[in-house]
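User: My collaborator sent over this chain with a note saying "see what the structure looks like." That's all I know about it. Can you take a look?
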Amino acid sequence: MNQLPGYDKLIADVERKIATRKADKKVDVVVNIYGKPCNTAVTLYTLLLHSGQWIDKIYFIQERKQPHNSNFDFIKAAFGKRIVSYTPGLWLWVRPFRTKWVFKFKPFRMAVRYQYGWERTDKDHLFITHNDVLYTNDVIGAMLQRIGHNIGIGPVGQCWNCSAHFAGVCTPDTYTSYKPSFAALTELMKRYPGRREKDYGDLPRKERPWPLPECRLNEWTAMINMKQARAVTMPLGKAIPFGAFYELDIGTRWFSDVLNMGHTVANFDIDGYGTHAWASSSGSGHAALLNMDEYTRSEKVAEDYLLAVNVSL
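Assistant: Without extra context I'll predict from the sequence alone. Here is the result:
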């Protein structure tokens, strides 16, 4: 997909509409791009439609390698000056790293998901999104209203992989009060095996068993309080970068680091505000990248959505 007829007009119409709205605060948005141009177009169009009054810059980070000859020129042209485009010099894909020292090197660190926007933004809040989310309501406004003193806000979990979820002892709303000892947690994991404990390595850590290995701020829709997070996260602080695939998954080590520093993350259910992997038949955005038929189908669903919206305006 090199061009979607009318997409520039679609965005221009939305820009005219949001010009009449007023917002006291502005946030920057950062989105990491690996394929899915039509899904990406839907994500940014619907985000602008519902939350455009809050948005200043959109950091548009294209991975150095792209599948299926993906082209995003029509999106960049439509958004104009809002887009800050960046392509890292390295391609990290989703390979886990277990050594902190690599993040001290700027070329490597700037290839971490979202990091370019993280280090470049001058806003108090940074909104992070996947490029396959369909937004249906003003998620940024709602998060700004509720983030309060927290370092971040968004859907907390990966509970679907977690022993504590299967045991019925922890939820995204109660994860701050469920703090088992290392011995209690390892016993729980024996009784209720998680779905991917084979990938845990030396997790949970004996000296720091909480939060649980699967716990994180899910990065498909999240907001970061940069006034708190910038100082405590690399390169300025000790926490592993938010978008780093370190140990188990993207964001799990950042979540563990900042919570053990005393920061808090608010759970925010995005139901009613958006749907992640909405065009995927499996509900998994990553799965579509590994299956050509699923990838093509989900892109066609997104393209049909945009063409239908364009006709209706």
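A starting point for your reply to your collaborator: The first strand starts at residue 27 and ends at 33.
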